[in-house]
Structure formats: C-alpha cells, structure tokens
Design the sequence.
C-alpha cells in the first residue's frame, strides 16, 4: 500500500533552510547532546577549526568548479568536489576551503576512531555491497566502520559516525535491497539510537549515467516495517535532497534507495542490526 504523507519522515533539501532546520531538529532530538548538526556554506575563503572534545565531520554536498581545500593553511590547495569529506579532530589545525560550496556537518564526541583529515571520493576504490552489490555500484567508503570485538558489550566499537557513497539503481541486477536497522546495543540492557542520513549527489560530477533523462530519482520508505511492512512512501529526490531513516526501540523505519546516487551517513555507524524486508 502506497501512502502520500511524508510529514513524519525527516526530509529536506540542502538549499531550503526551513526544511533543513526540520532535519537538524529531528537528528538532534533523536541522538541527543552527544551529537550536533549544521549546514555550513562558504562564498570565498573560510577556515574550519577544532572544538574541544569534539570531532567535526564535513560532508560536501555542493561545490562549484572553483572550490579548493587545504589540509594546512599553507601550500597548494586541491579541488573539492561534492561527495568529498573532511574532518577536524581536537587539537588539529584548521582546514581551509575556498570557492562556493555547502557541507553538512556532524559533530561528535571524539573517540579513538581514526577520522581522516581529507577524503576525496574520486580517489577511493569501489567496494560493491550492502544496498548496491552489482559491478559499477560506485560504493566507496570515506568513513568505514571499525567493527567491535566479538565479545564487546558496546556494539558501537569506536564508531560515532560512518559514511559511504554509492550509486543505488533499479536498472542493475540485483536491484537495491529493502531493509531496516535496529538500535545499537551498548550494554546488556542499554541501546543507543541508529540513523542513516542520505544526501543525494549529482551523478554528472563523476561521469555516471543517469536513469532516464534527468538526475531525479526516488527513495522508498517503510514508515513502520515491523507492524505494517506493506505500507510504503515513495519520496522523489534530486541532488541536494536529504532523507533520514531512524531506528530506536520505539520507532523503526526501513528504506530502499531505488534510484539515488547518495552519501549515506550512519550514526553511530554501520554497525546496527540489519533486517531484510520483502
């Protein structure tokens, strides 16, 4: 059964401030004070510095052809593209960017997770799997998970946020999987909430073929896959679209990205229980 109401699903577009406030408020409520979220834009030159006790992760959503990034304030800059990621840990020197661009920031409590300084999506190796197991899936891990020890009570391990990018298409075989996740155990009787935030990117930047005549796609959401797995909501998306699917002990949503080239940002990481949907 297809529903039209998407009001309960945190959705927005990176260029629509009102909708992004709703996405950010939902993520803050869901994950509490251990995390914070923001949309950061720049026109010209800006530096992003460290914050005591926090690691700042910047996921680049938009960047014009003039955009560059400097790992240090001196030296040569490198081209900054949509899909790139840069991180600033406590005590790190600032990262400088220049041009016109927008990034989605996730700030977390710092753990021993080895967050990289700068990751260029174009330099990563494809690793088909998960939502896209076919050759040419463009599945690239900028912030891959570090799996906890098999006997570890805290199933987060050192992860507080992970990210990978992939081209999820319904014109390839096998098609994208429909699934949901559960909350993440941190002890015998305790869990933390899990979420995945999808941010849609333009395929043309990486020379990927579109499905049909445009870069518009869609995502299928299962608002309550446990109680009513037959009810779905199809949400149209385009570059810059943002969709959050949460999982807690009280509320679980499922998803299938049937036509979307997107960054998937997982909190506390790609370590949550995984359940297939029919």
Sequence:
């Amino acid at each position: 059964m297809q529903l039209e109401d998407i009001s309960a699903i945190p959705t927005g577009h990176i260029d629509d401030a009102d909708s992004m406030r709703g996405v950010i408020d939902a993520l803050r409520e869901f994950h509490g004070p251990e995390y914070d979220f923001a949309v950061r834009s720049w026109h010209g030159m800006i530096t992003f510095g460290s914050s005591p006790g926090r690691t700042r992760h910047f996921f680049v959503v938009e960047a014009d052809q003039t955009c560059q990034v400097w790992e240090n304030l001196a030296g040569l800059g490198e081209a900054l593209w949509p899909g790139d990621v840069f991180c600033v840990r406590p005590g790190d020197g600032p990262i400088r960017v220049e041009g016109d661009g927008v990034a989605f920031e996730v700030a977390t409590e710092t753990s021993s997770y080895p967050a990289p300084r700068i990751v260029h999506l174009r330099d990563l190796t494809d690793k088909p799997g998960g939502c896209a197991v076919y050759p040419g899936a463009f599945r690239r891990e900028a912030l891959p998970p570090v799996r906890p020890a098999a006997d570890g009570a805290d199933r987060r391990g050192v992860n507080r946020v992970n990210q990978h990018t992939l081209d999820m298409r319904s014109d390839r075989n096998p098609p994208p999987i429909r699934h949901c996740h559960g909350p993440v155990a941190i002890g015998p009787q305790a869990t933390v909430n899990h979420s995945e935030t999808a941010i849609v990117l333009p395929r043309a930047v990486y020379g990927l073929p579109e499905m049909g005549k445009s870069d518009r796609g869609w995502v299928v959401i299962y608002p309550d896959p446990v109680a009513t797995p037959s009810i779905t909501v199809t949400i149209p998306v385009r570059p810059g679209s943002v969709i959050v699917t949460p999982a807690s002990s009280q509320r679980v949503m499922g998803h299938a990205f049937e036509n979307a080239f997107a960054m998937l940002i997982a909190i506390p990481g790609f370590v949550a229980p995984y359940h297939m949907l029919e």
In short: Helices lie at 17-31.
